[in-house]
Amino acid sequence: MQFQKTRNKTWMHTPEALSKHYIPYNAKFLGSTEVEQPKGTEVVRDAVRKLKFARHIKKSEGQKIPKVELQISIYGVKILEPKTKEVQHNCQLHRISFCADDKTDKRIFTFICKDSESNKHLCYVFDSEKCAEEITLTIGQAFDLAYRKFLESGGKDVETRKQIAGLQKRIQDLETENMELKNKVQDLENQLRITQVSTSPAGSVTPKSPSTDIFDMIPFSPVSHQSSIPTHNGTQPPPVPSRSAEIKRDLFGAEPFDPFNCGAGDFPPDIQSKLDEMQEGFKMGLTLEGTVFCLDPVDSRC
Predict the structure, then answer these.
(1) Please, which residues have CB within 8 angstroms of residue 212's CB and are 6 or more apart in sequence?
(2) Which 3 state secondary structure label does DSSP give 217?
Protein backbone atom coordinates (compact mmCIF):
# COMPACT_ATOMS: atom_id res chain seq x y z
CA MET A 1 0.00 0.00 0.00
CA GLN A 2 1.31 3.43 -0.90
CA PHE A 3 2.01 5.77 2.01
CA GLN A 4 1.78 9.54 2.00
CA LYS A 5 3.26 12.06 4.43
CA THR A 6 0.97 14.89 5.55
CA ARG A 7 1.79 17.22 8.45
CA ASN A 8 4.48 14.82 9.67
CA LYS A 9 1.93 12.01 9.82
CA THR A 10 2.00 8.83 7.78
CA TRP A 11 -1.36 8.40 6.08
CA MET A 12 -2.72 5.15 4.69
CA HIS A 13 -4.62 6.38 1.63
CA THR A 14 -4.51 8.94 -1.15
CA PRO A 15 -6.61 12.11 -0.69
CA GLU A 16 -8.69 11.19 -3.74
CA ALA A 17 -9.76 7.90 -2.17
CA LEU A 18 -11.30 9.71 0.81
CA SER A 19 -12.54 12.78 -1.09
CA LYS A 20 -14.27 11.15 -4.05
CA HIS A 21 -15.03 7.74 -2.56
CA TYR A 22 -14.87 6.05 0.85
CA ILE A 23 -12.71 3.43 2.56
CA PRO A 24 -14.67 0.39 3.82
CA TYR A 25 -13.74 -1.67 6.87
CA ASN A 26 -15.40 -4.60 8.60
CA ALA A 27 -15.57 -4.75 12.39
CA LYS A 28 -17.64 -5.90 15.33
CA PHE A 29 -19.63 -3.20 17.08
CA LEU A 30 -19.47 -3.40 20.87
CA GLY A 31 -21.83 -0.47 21.14
CA SER A 32 -21.81 3.15 22.26
CA THR A 33 -22.12 4.82 25.64
CA GLU A 34 -22.41 8.39 26.85
CA VAL A 35 -19.26 10.00 28.27
CA GLU A 36 -18.78 13.24 30.18
CA GLN A 37 -15.83 14.64 28.24
CA PRO A 38 -15.11 15.01 24.48
CA LYS A 39 -11.48 13.92 24.91
CA GLY A 40 -9.25 11.85 27.14
CA THR A 41 -7.56 8.47 27.34
CA GLU A 42 -9.17 7.68 30.69
CA VAL A 43 -12.57 8.64 29.28
CA VAL A 44 -12.41 6.09 26.45
CA ARG A 45 -10.71 3.51 28.67
CA ASP A 46 -13.66 3.54 31.08
CA ALA A 47 -16.11 3.36 28.16
CA VAL A 48 -14.27 0.36 26.67
CA ARG A 49 -14.33 -1.45 30.00
CA LYS A 50 -18.04 -0.76 30.43
CA LEU A 51 -18.99 -1.98 26.94
CA LYS A 52 -16.65 -4.99 27.10
CA PHE A 53 -18.28 -6.09 30.34
CA ALA A 54 -21.78 -5.62 28.88
CA ARG A 55 -20.82 -7.67 25.80
CA HIS A 56 -19.29 -10.40 27.97
CA ILE A 57 -22.62 -10.80 29.78
CA LYS A 58 -24.57 -10.91 26.50
CA LYS A 59 -22.09 -13.41 25.05
CA SER A 60 -22.60 -15.68 28.05
CA GLU A 61 -26.32 -15.51 27.27
CA GLY A 62 -25.68 -16.71 23.73
CA GLN A 63 -25.83 -13.36 21.94
CA LYS A 64 -23.22 -12.62 19.28
CA ILE A 65 -21.47 -9.32 18.80
CA PRO A 66 -23.07 -7.68 15.73
CA LYS A 67 -20.88 -7.13 12.69
CA VAL A 68 -20.88 -3.76 10.95
CA GLU A 69 -19.29 -2.07 7.97
CA LEU A 70 -17.52 1.23 8.40
CA GLN A 71 -17.40 3.65 5.48
CA ILE A 72 -14.87 6.43 6.09
CA SER A 73 -14.64 9.54 3.90
CA ILE A 74 -14.25 13.30 4.27
CA TYR A 75 -18.03 13.43 4.89
CA GLY A 76 -17.91 11.30 8.00
CA VAL A 77 -17.89 7.79 9.40
CA LYS A 78 -20.93 5.72 8.50
CA ILE A 79 -21.80 2.58 10.45
CA LEU A 80 -23.86 0.19 8.31
CA GLU A 81 -25.40 -3.24 8.53
CA PRO A 82 -23.12 -5.31 6.22
CA LYS A 83 -25.82 -7.14 4.26
CA THR A 84 -28.63 -4.63 3.92
CA LYS A 85 -26.31 -1.58 3.90
CA GLU A 86 -28.74 0.16 6.23
CA VAL A 87 -27.08 3.14 7.94
CA GLN A 88 -27.19 2.71 11.71
CA HIS A 89 -25.09 5.75 12.64
CA ASN A 90 -23.68 8.65 10.64
CA CYS A 91 -20.90 10.47 12.50
CA GLN A 92 -19.79 13.72 10.89
CA LEU A 93 -16.07 14.39 11.19
CA HIS A 94 -16.33 17.86 12.75
CA ARG A 95 -18.27 16.19 15.58
CA ILE A 96 -15.56 13.58 16.25
CA SER A 97 -13.16 14.88 18.90
CA PHE A 98 -11.11 11.84 19.98
CA CYS A 99 -10.02 8.68 18.20
CA ALA A 100 -7.64 5.96 19.40
CA ASP A 101 -6.81 2.30 19.19
CA ASP A 102 -6.16 0.35 22.37
CA LYS A 103 -2.42 -0.34 22.73
CA THR A 104 -3.06 -3.14 25.21
CA ASP A 105 -5.72 -4.82 23.07
CA LYS A 106 -4.77 -4.19 19.44
CA ARG A 107 -8.18 -5.38 18.26
CA ILE A 108 -10.05 -2.51 19.93
CA PHE A 109 -10.46 1.01 18.56
CA THR A 110 -12.81 3.78 19.61
CA PHE A 111 -13.84 7.35 18.91
CA ILE A 112 -15.91 10.02 20.68
CA CYS A 113 -18.57 11.83 18.67
CA LYS A 114 -21.05 14.54 19.68
CA ASP A 115 -24.57 13.40 18.87
CA SER A 116 -26.35 15.71 16.39
CA GLU A 117 -29.73 15.49 18.16
CA SER A 118 -28.99 15.28 21.89
CA ASN A 119 -25.59 17.08 21.75
CA LYS A 120 -24.26 14.45 24.15
CA HIS A 121 -20.81 12.96 23.74
CA LEU A 122 -20.98 9.28 22.78
CA CYS A 123 -18.07 6.86 22.75
CA TYR A 124 -18.24 4.21 20.00
CA VAL A 125 -16.23 1.01 20.55
CA PHE A 126 -15.31 -1.56 17.88
CA ASP A 127 -13.44 -4.85 17.65
CA SER A 128 -11.33 -5.37 14.53
CA GLU A 129 -8.98 -8.32 14.25
CA LYS A 130 -6.28 -6.71 12.11
CA CYS A 131 -7.20 -3.13 11.21
CA ALA A 132 -7.68 -1.23 14.50
CA GLU A 133 -4.66 1.05 14.07
CA GLU A 134 -5.26 1.51 10.34
CA ILE A 135 -8.89 2.52 10.93
CA THR A 136 -7.78 5.06 13.53
CA LEU A 137 -5.26 6.59 11.09
CA THR A 138 -7.86 6.63 8.32
CA ILE A 139 -10.30 8.59 10.48
CA GLY A 140 -7.48 11.02 11.32
CA GLN A 141 -6.61 11.47 7.65
CA ALA A 142 -10.26 12.02 6.71
CA PHE A 143 -10.57 14.66 9.46
CA ASP A 144 -7.46 16.45 8.18
CA LEU A 145 -8.76 16.48 4.60
CA ALA A 146 -12.21 17.63 5.71
CA TYR A 147 -10.64 20.47 7.66
CA ARG A 148 -8.71 21.59 4.57
CA LYS A 149 -11.83 21.36 2.41
CA PHE A 150 -13.73 23.46 4.95
CA LEU A 151 -11.11 26.22 4.72
CA GLU A 152 -11.07 26.13 0.94
CA SER A 153 -14.86 26.38 0.75
CA GLY A 154 -15.01 29.56 2.82
CA GLY A 155 -14.49 28.52 6.42
CA LYS A 156 -12.15 31.46 6.98
CA ASP A 157 -14.98 33.85 6.11
CA VAL A 158 -17.43 32.52 8.70
CA GLU A 159 -16.74 35.32 11.20
CA THR A 160 -16.99 37.97 8.48
CA ARG A 161 -20.28 36.51 7.25
CA LYS A 162 -21.63 36.51 10.81
CA GLN A 163 -20.86 40.24 11.07
CA ILE A 164 -22.54 40.87 7.71
CA ALA A 165 -25.61 38.94 8.88
CA GLY A 166 -25.73 41.11 12.01
CA LEU A 167 -25.63 44.30 9.95
CA GLN A 168 -28.33 42.96 7.64
CA LYS A 169 -30.55 42.24 10.63
CA ARG A 170 -29.97 45.78 11.92
CA ILE A 171 -30.98 47.22 8.53
CA GLN A 172 -34.15 45.15 8.57
CA ASP A 173 -34.99 46.41 12.08
CA LEU A 174 -34.49 50.02 10.97
CA GLU A 175 -36.76 49.45 7.95
CA THR A 176 -39.45 48.09 10.26
CA GLU A 177 -39.05 51.03 12.65
CA ASN A 178 -39.23 53.47 9.74
CA MET A 179 -42.49 51.93 8.51
CA GLU A 180 -44.01 52.09 12.00
CA LEU A 181 -43.15 55.81 12.26
CA LYS A 182 -44.72 56.51 8.86
CA ASN A 183 -47.89 54.74 9.96
CA LYS A 184 -48.01 56.84 13.13
CA VAL A 185 -47.67 60.03 11.06
CA GLN A 186 -50.54 58.88 8.85
CA ASP A 187 -52.69 58.21 11.93
CA LEU A 188 -51.98 61.69 13.27
CA GLU A 189 -52.91 63.23 9.91
CA ASN A 190 -56.21 61.33 9.92
CA GLN A 191 -57.00 62.45 13.47
CA LEU A 192 -56.24 66.08 12.58
CA ARG A 193 -58.50 65.88 9.53
CA ILE A 194 -61.36 64.44 11.64
CA THR A 195 -60.88 67.20 14.24
CA GLN A 196 -61.08 69.96 11.62
CA VAL A 197 -64.23 68.49 10.09
CA SER A 198 -65.96 68.18 13.46
CA THR A 199 -65.18 71.80 14.44
CA SER A 200 -66.44 73.39 11.18
CA PRO A 201 -69.87 75.30 11.36
CA ALA A 202 -72.91 73.10 10.72
CA GLY A 203 -74.63 73.60 7.36
CA SER A 204 -71.81 75.68 5.93
CA VAL A 205 -71.44 75.19 2.20
CA THR A 206 -68.97 77.96 1.44
CA PRO A 207 -65.39 76.92 2.00
CA LYS A 208 -63.63 79.06 4.57
CA SER A 209 -60.83 81.17 3.22
CA PRO A 210 -57.57 80.28 4.87
CA SER A 211 -56.09 82.91 7.15
CA THR A 212 -52.75 84.47 6.31
CA ASP A 213 -49.72 85.18 8.46
CA ILE A 214 -47.92 88.52 8.91
CA PHE A 215 -46.25 88.07 5.52
CA ASP A 216 -49.63 87.51 3.84
CA MET A 217 -48.78 83.82 3.31
CA ILE A 218 -51.05 80.84 3.86
CA PRO A 219 -49.79 78.86 6.89
CA PHE A 220 -48.58 75.32 6.22
CA SER A 221 -51.09 72.56 6.94
CA PRO A 222 -50.29 68.83 6.63
CA VAL A 223 -53.80 68.16 5.31
CA SER A 224 -54.16 71.06 2.87
CA HIS A 225 -50.93 70.85 0.90
CA GLN A 226 -52.55 69.19 -2.08
CA SER A 227 -55.23 71.92 -2.51
CA SER A 228 -52.63 74.70 -2.21
CA ILE A 229 -50.48 73.39 -5.07
CA PRO A 230 -51.21 75.48 -8.18
CA THR A 231 -51.97 73.85 -11.48
CA HIS A 232 -49.39 73.92 -14.26
CA ASN A 233 -50.53 74.65 -17.84
CA GLY A 234 -54.10 73.92 -16.86
CA THR A 235 -53.34 70.35 -15.66
CA GLN A 236 -53.69 68.94 -12.20
CA PRO A 237 -50.55 67.79 -10.33
CA PRO A 238 -50.01 64.03 -10.01
CA PRO A 239 -52.03 62.39 -7.22
CA VAL A 240 -50.39 61.55 -3.90
CA PRO A 241 -49.44 57.82 -3.76
CA SER A 242 -51.64 55.65 -1.61
CA ARG A 243 -50.37 53.93 1.56
CA SER A 244 -50.27 50.55 -0.18
CA ALA A 245 -47.69 51.89 -2.64
CA GLU A 246 -45.65 53.59 0.09
CA ILE A 247 -45.23 50.35 1.99
CA LYS A 248 -42.95 49.09 -0.75
CA ARG A 249 -40.60 52.06 -0.38
CA ASP A 250 -38.53 53.44 2.45
CA LEU A 251 -37.98 57.07 3.44
CA PHE A 252 -35.54 57.56 0.54
CA GLY A 253 -37.71 55.88 -2.09
CA ALA A 254 -35.82 52.58 -2.03
CA GLU A 255 -37.34 49.17 -1.51
CA PRO A 256 -36.88 47.72 2.02
CA PHE A 257 -33.78 45.53 2.35
CA ASP A 258 -34.41 41.78 2.65
CA PRO A 259 -31.47 40.02 4.37
CA PHE A 260 -32.76 36.64 3.25
CA ASN A 261 -32.82 37.58 -0.42
CA CYS A 262 -29.18 38.50 -0.91
CA GLY A 263 -26.33 37.66 -3.24
CA ALA A 264 -24.76 34.28 -3.79
CA GLY A 265 -21.86 35.21 -1.50
CA ASP A 266 -24.14 35.39 1.58
CA PHE A 267 -25.57 32.30 3.22
CA PRO A 268 -29.14 31.86 4.51
CA PRO A 269 -29.51 31.24 8.25
CA ASP A 270 -29.72 27.44 8.08
CA ILE A 271 -26.46 27.13 6.14
CA GLN A 272 -24.83 29.81 8.28
CA SER A 273 -25.66 27.90 11.47
CA LYS A 274 -24.23 24.75 9.90
CA LEU A 275 -21.01 26.60 9.09
CA ASP A 276 -20.85 27.90 12.66
CA GLU A 277 -21.25 24.37 13.97
CA MET A 278 -18.50 23.05 11.69
CA GLN A 279 -16.20 25.87 12.69
CA GLU A 280 -16.63 25.08 16.38
CA GLY A 281 -16.02 21.38 15.73
CA PHE A 282 -12.84 21.96 13.77
CA LYS A 283 -11.65 24.45 16.40
CA MET A 284 -11.86 21.71 19.03
CA GLY A 285 -9.78 19.48 16.77
CA LEU A 286 -9.33 15.72 16.67
CA THR A 287 -6.95 14.13 19.17
CA LEU A 288 -5.39 11.15 17.42
CA GLU A 289 -2.86 9.08 19.33
CA GLY A 290 -1.66 12.14 21.19
CA THR A 291 -1.56 14.37 18.09
CA VAL A 292 -4.05 17.23 17.80
CA PHE A 293 -5.36 18.43 14.43
CA CYS A 294 -7.18 21.72 15.01
CA LEU A 295 -8.46 24.71 13.08
CA ASP A 296 -5.61 27.13 12.39
CA PRO A 297 -6.98 30.30 10.77
CA VAL A 298 -3.48 31.72 10.10
CA ASP A 299 -2.47 28.71 8.05
CA SER A 300 -2.91 30.08 4.53
CA ARG A 301 -1.41 27.01 2.89
CA CYS A 302 -4.65 25.05 3.32
Answers:
(1) 218, 219
(2) coil
CA 68, 69, 75, 76 dihedral sign is positive
Single pTM value for the model = 0.56
Going by C-alpha positions, the residue among 46, 54, 33, 59 that lies closest to residue 113 is 33
Task: Report the SS3 class of residue 172.
Answer: helix
pLDDT tier at 302, thresholds 50, 70, 90: very low
- 23's enclosing H/E stretch is strand 23-35
Question: Distance (Å, rounded) from C-alpha 127 to C-alpha 35?
Answer: 19
* Distance (Å, whole) CA 43 – CA 287: 13
| Residue 220 near residue 226 (C-beta atoms within 8 A) | no
Lowest mean pLDDT among 46-50, 94-98, 235-239: 235-239
Sign, Cα dihedral of 201, 205, 206, 210 = positive
36 C-beta neighbours (distance < 10 Å), count:
9
Residue 102, SS3?
Answer: coil
- For 71, list phi and psi in degrees, rounded to 5: -120, 110
